[in-house]
Design the sequence.
């Protein structure tokens, strides 16, 4: 991890740590808590998209699996909380592994459709299997997060927990991309054949990253379920899959900081533009299209490039955003 | 009703919806062949077909025939605009970026339709009569016959277009090799534009004929698009006979599964078929195995 990342991380931690002192409205805190969860999902997706060059429109299903497995294990079967989280991650990872082996062999846009189809199947199961999942009306009465006897029963308490987890995940991911495995992943996304020739086991790497991103989504899903104590299938439809992919693309492909920025921006933005509520879907489509058309590298490298150009006053090629 | 008759009935209704999947699948194939991308907005074209027809026929009171052609022209225009503006303006021509732009376009269209036409499901009267007639013991809706007839006409017309006309041949040349087509002086950009326009028109026809059977609303596009895509994959992506075969087969399988196994899991079964085909034979039934070029 470079010096710059350490500085960023310090600023990030300070900002996050001090924010609840000025922000006491519990609704605002809830929005930020959801943002923290989205960041966890988006970091996994960034690894998959930006470093393995694979796109998935099925991550809502892994997020949902984490949430529903957690809910069912702790509520229906009364299993203890934290082991359940791990168990949900293992089960989701296993399912991701099983569908990943055949799907990751496919070319980019086939994978998009395969993951999308998978998401629709999982969504239908959540809605139809109502004896287990509660069906369209949802699953209520999920226990809150707790350590020992200490329960995370207010938004501020959950805030610190979730941001600690998402900060930790970010830290791990930053370390990962600067490791040997990270360099292999970067090689893979630039040129698969060249990576293969230099001895990178391309298939194994793709599967590993796919499973990692699914496990992260599952973790976020479990935390989501235990935070809100109520879940319904609507939160895990393909629209959520699209939202998280939009966050990654807006943040900037292959930039973890950019992705975190994209997740924060797209979670908070709709809440700020309350008038837009009705136009939510429309605005999402417009933003996604506009960013992809004009800033295919994502917003953060795009903006950085514009600033750099203005400073230098020349038309130098825009720099590649550092992870 | 005995089982054989029941199966026959399910097959008939399956082939009816399957025909509209086939039209959607051909739309996917046209765009794939000219550009190499998957057009996610294809399902929205089908949805728009239903919406425009309802507007022209039910709201504005135009007779069926002119309303039909006006709808096809309108959705074709949407297809044209999609290519002309977002896709052609895109700074990156990477396939994945272009595909995601069509995803954005599909969300945008969905959102716009939700605001303009509202959230309530809407329907159209069938093209002629509602009284079913009995064929070999099974009930057939006149609308089914319209769908079969229109699909057949469209496929025949497309076949003639691609094999017998100059522009059709030019489009096939672009599909075979963009570079060589350009070198022989074919205006490749215009052919790509035409493929989006045609796909829009095909989507409109599917939407107009399907709506009286299934009703429509702003959010049906994703599902219809996925079904059409599954059909295209099943038959062999990029192949026109494959698209027709895949569409009919998917419709029939889905209807049988819904009737004999469970109607709640109908859509899940359709996508399970998609996943299985992708896993075991990604080139589809009629597709040729592709060599990976290094």
Sequence:
């Amino acid at each position: 991890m470079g010096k710059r990342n350490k500085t960023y991380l310090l600023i990030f931690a300070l900002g996050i740590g001090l924010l609840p002192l000025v922000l006491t409205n519990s609704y605002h805190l809830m929005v930020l808590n959801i943002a923290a969860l989205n960041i966890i999902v988006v970091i996994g997706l960034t690894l998959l998209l930006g470093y393995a060059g694979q796109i998935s429109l099925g991550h809502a299903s892994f997020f949902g699996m984490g949430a529903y497995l957690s809910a069912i294990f702790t509520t229906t079967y009364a299993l203890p909380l934290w082991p359940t989280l791990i168990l949900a991650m293992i089960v989701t990872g296993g399912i991701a592994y099983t569908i990943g082996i055949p799907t990751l062999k496919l070319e980019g846009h086939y994978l998009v459709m395969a993951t999308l189809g998978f998401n629709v199947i999982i969504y239908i199961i959540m809605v139809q299997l109502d004896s287990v999942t509660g069906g369209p009306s949802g699953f209520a009465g999920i226990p809150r997060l707790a350590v020992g006897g200490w329960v995370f029963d207010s938004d501020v308490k959950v805030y610190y927990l979730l941001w600690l987890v998402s900060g930790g995940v970010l830290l791990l991911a930053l370390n990962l991309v600067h490791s040997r495995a990270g360099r292999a992943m970067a090689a893979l996304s630039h040129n698969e054949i060249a990576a293969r020739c230099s001895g990178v086991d391309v298939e194994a790497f793709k599967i590993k990253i796919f499973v990692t991103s699914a496990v992260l989504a599952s973790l976020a899903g479990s935390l989501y379920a235990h935070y809100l104590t109520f879940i319904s299938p609507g939160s895990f439809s393909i629209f959520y899959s699209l939202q998280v992919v939009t966050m990654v693309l807006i943040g900037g492909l292959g930039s973890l900081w950019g992705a975190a920025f994209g997740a924060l921006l797209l979670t908070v933005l709709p809440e700020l533009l309350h008038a837009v509520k009705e136009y939510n879907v429309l605005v999402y489509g417009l933003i996604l299209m506009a960013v992809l058309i004009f800033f295919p590298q994502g917003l953060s490298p795009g903006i950085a490039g514009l600033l750099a150009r203005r400073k230098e006053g020349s038309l130098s090629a825009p720099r590649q955003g550092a992870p | 009703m005995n089982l054989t008759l029941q199966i026959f009935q399910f097959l008939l209704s399956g082939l009816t919806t399957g025909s509209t999947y086939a039209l959607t699948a051909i739309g996917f194939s046209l765009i794939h062949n000219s550009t190499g991308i998957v057009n996610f907005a294809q399902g929205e074209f089908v949805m728009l077909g239903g919406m425009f027809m309802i507007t022209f026929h039910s709201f504005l009171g135009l007779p069926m025939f002119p309303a039909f052609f006006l709808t096809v022209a309108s959705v074709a225009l949407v297809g044209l605009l999609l290519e002309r503006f977002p896709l052609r303006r895109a700074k990156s021509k990477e396939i994945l970026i272009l595909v995601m732009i069509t995803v954005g376009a599909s969300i945008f269209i969905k959102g716009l339709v939700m605001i303009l036409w509202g959230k309530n499901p809407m329907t159209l009267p069938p093209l002629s009569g509602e009284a079913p007639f009995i064929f070999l013991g099974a009930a057939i809706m006149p609308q089914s016959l319209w769908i079969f007839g229109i699909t057949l006409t469209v496929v025949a017309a497309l076949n003639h277009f691609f094999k017998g006309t100059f522009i059709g041949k030019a489009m096939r040349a672009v599909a075979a090799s963009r570079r060589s087509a350009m070198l022989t002086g074919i205006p490749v950009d215009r052919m790509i534009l035409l493929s989006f326009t045609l796909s829009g028109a095909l989507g409109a026809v599917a939407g107009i004929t399907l709506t009286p059977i299934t009703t429509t609303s702003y959010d049906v596009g994703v599902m219809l698009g996925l079904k059409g895509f599954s059909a295209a994959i099943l038959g062999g992506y990029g192949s026109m006979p494959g698209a027709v075969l895949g569409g009919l087969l998917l419709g029939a399988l889905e209807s049988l599964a819904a009737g004999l196994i469970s109607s709640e899991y109908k859509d899940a079964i359709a996508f399970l078929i998609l996943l299985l085909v992708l896993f075991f034979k990604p080139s589809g039934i009629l597709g040729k195995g592709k060599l990976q070029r290094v």
User: Anything to note?
Assistant: Chain B touches chain A at residues 37-38, 86, 89-92, 94-97, 99-101, 103-112, 114-115, 222-223, 226, 229-230, 233, 264-265, 267-268, 271-272, 274-275, 278-280, 282, 294 (CB under 8 Å). Chain B has a mean pLDDT of 91. Residues 3-35 of chain B form the longest helix (33 residues).
